[in-house]
UniProtKB/TrEMBL annotation:
GO terms for molecular function: hydrolase activity; phosphorelay sensor kinase activity; protein dimerization activity. The keyword Kinase applies. Keywords: Kinase, Membrane, Transferase, Transmembrane, Transmembrane helix, Two-component regulatory system. SMART domains: HATPase_c. PANTHER family: NITRATE/NITRITE SENSOR PROTEIN NARX-RELATED, SENSORY TRANSDUCTION HISTIDINE KINASE. The keyword Chloroplast does not apply. Residues 599-691 form the Histidine kinase/HSP90-like ATPase domain. This is Histidine kinase/HSP90-like ATPase domain-containing protein. The chain crosses the membrane at residues 5-26, 456-480. GO terms for cellular component: membrane.
Amino acid sequence: MRRRVVIPVALTTLFIVGGLCLFAYWRSPSRGLPYRDSFGAAKAEEWTALGGTWEVVGGAMRNDSDERGAKLLTGSTHWQNYSIEADVMLLGLGGDAGLLVRSSHEEEGVDAYDGYYAGLRTIDNSLTLGRAGYGWMEANFPLKPRGIPVQASRWYHMKLLAYGCQLVASASLLPHGNPTVASITDEDCIQSGRGGLRSYSSGGVWRNVVVRAATQRDVDEMLTQGRSEENSSSQYSINDLLSRGVTLAPPLDNQPSALPSSPNTQSISSLRMVSLAKETQATVRGIVILNSPALFVQDSTGGVAVQPIKSQALKVGDEVEVSGQVKTNAFSSMLENATVRVLWEATPMPAVSVTASQAATGAFDATFIEVSGLLRDKRYGPGDELIFDFDSGSQSFRAIMNRGRGNYLYGKLKLGSLLRLRGVSVVDPAYTQFVTPFAVLVRSSDDVEVLAGPPWWSAGHLVAAAIGLLLLALIINFVYHRIESMRLRAVVEEREHLAYEMHDTLAQSVAGIGFQLEAIRIGTPEELSNVHRQLDLASELVRHSHAEARRSINMLRPQQLESEGLLNALTRCAQRLVEGGAVQVVVGATGDVRPLPLRTADTLYRIGQEAIANAVRHAHPSRIAINIKYEKNAVHLLVSDDGSGFRAGEDMQGFGVLGMRKRAASIAARFEVCSSTAHGTEVRVAAPLAPRVTFVSWPIFVWNFLKERARNVAASNKSNPHPYSR
């Protein structure tokens, strides 16, 4: 009883302790630290994007969008004291790019997060450090030496550290620039959050991102690096930021002005009406909607593909002026040999929501669209790009994406899922391969949204469900047999207990009565012959009762069955019953001997015991044979004797045959008794055994079971072709 209580308590305690350890590890501020990016291996599965067009290109993370407040985050929200550093390159003017620490509650938007940000800004050539909380407060620190500009397309090394309520940021021009260090103390600071990358109104490139746990020593080292006679690093309280000119956005008079455009610009939609008979030059003005694998520009009337004379570092959202030779096709137009001039870093163009049928008409060629479809197939293209095939109603289309961060998306998306895509619609056969009416050039994996997963009734899920049900059935069967085995074990233990009680009470009492009768007979005078005769009869009855009691005790207490096996147990039983007589006991076993289920072994033992006892009591044999034959799916027990036997048709109730038959039926065994007065008696029992199910054999076992089931049903229908007729 004590053991039954201790084991569940120990398991419960172990489970609780394990859960607490797992919870503590999950909330640990050092979980996942130190961290180093895998951009060099084109992997970024652990990063989450909010806005922008984030892609891994050339071993670095790149955002080619001018979107305001694009963020890319990684790590645990329980990170507390740590630093993040990286090499950063700005891709445009009029904005900034940098690093985030202790970020949480993030959403898409300019300052839609709680956390700290340090970035390099081009419009005032400064290192900005501030706090966002769905609003913005900042302090600006000019780069060292004073007056040095922050330039696009140059690498800077940045580091942002948070320790306690102190924030320290540094920036230096690579490879050997002097670091500019900025430090602020926030009395009501944010305690923990994720790390990340961020850009504002400018694209950017990040590489060699490293996150480490920080200490006070790291803070002191960063502050020491920034101290010099010319310009020592400054430390400010967040309450002093207003005195330093806290701003909610860069001052408008510092924004770079747009370049003037040509007065001869025309709308993009007018290019489709250009005559095919002669070469025509045209100038259009629009916003860049895609810069890879081809350049596309869109205005309010439509979009156009551009083949520039020379490649330029353009970002999604740049407002440009394009001049080139017009090439018109059936549904699209293109500007070849074009010159591209950046006018302004504008806001990226929003997507136009259309159906697949509308896009298939070609009316939205070279336009940034949003369309939905069911994923039918996915594969890698000849140029290592990702190709996805979709169905939407009666229309089919394909989506093409650069590998980059899309490689993670490729493994995540499941066939049959309903997806929403944002990308540039094209009808050029170079992309459609004459297979679909249009294709969608997806800018990044963040432009793919899963609306619904594949239906659960797919073939794979049905097979998995069938296998799961089969495993569940096997588990239930195993548990059932374990419970049944425990129940039978309890019955055996109770029988053994009853045998001990009978031995200590009934058997001893009967033996005592026998001794008393023998003593009375000895003390009775010899001339009382009638009394002597009655005492002898009583003593004989007592001896017979004592023998029956011993036999019952032996039948109730087969303690050797589990330890010695069925054959040895029956052998011992037979030897005890014929002890002192001239009966020969012969035993034998054939086949692959295997352990038997407790219920089967106990039942066969009882039947064999009864058969041996009947032979000894009634048949007066000179030889008793016990044989056990093991087969693949059955075990056979044969108990035979050469005694007097009985004739067919005689009442067999007194020989215990009815009890043996009922025992055999309890384990679905076949029971037979063959007897004759000339050859003795044979008791045959054939008990079925469950086949040995292995990892290799279980499909065959299931197939044989189903085949046998079908055969039984067919036989039943054949025997009664009209089950409802009377």
